[in-house]
Design a protein that fits this description.
By secondary structure, the protein is of the alpha+beta class. The chain has four helices and six strands; from the N terminus they run ββββαββααα.
Length: 178
Amino acid sequence: MNKVILMGRLTRDPEVRYSQGGENPLAIARFSLAVDRRFKRDGEPTADFINCVAFGRQAEHAERFYRQGLKIVITGRIQTGSYTNRDGVKVYTTDVVVEESEFAESKTVSDANARNYGSAASASSSASSVDVGAGFMNMPEGSDRDFASSSSRSSVMADKGEDFVEIEAGIDEELPFN
């Protein structure tokens, strides 16, 4: 099985090109993600810079919405390849082919981080950023992870700096979901 899941910040705006053949040209987007390493060396945050490529609708989505500094989550597969460069040297490549992607933080937090995102290295040191869009995986340890309890969810999210409205008791019958 070849399955990759990554969460990181774009190190630059996606580079999008379109294929030459056929009636409908295919969009191809290339970008790289700065993905924080779980363990730090000598207390310094480190990141891996992973090349990604998206095709078709995923590439068009990247072209339209993705910008340097934006935190996203992607799923895909690793693909290796090789080519001979102009000097006659064989170059080996490893890319993640994007199958699905989504935003990993709110627009407000993303805009604030984009303004403060000076270089790819600063992405790995942004430990103070808020991971709102990633869901309950980022809730503080020991917090109530039961989403049926809207009060615990909204109180946890309020701690993360987001403006959530608590749902009133007894309104359950009016909601379109249970």
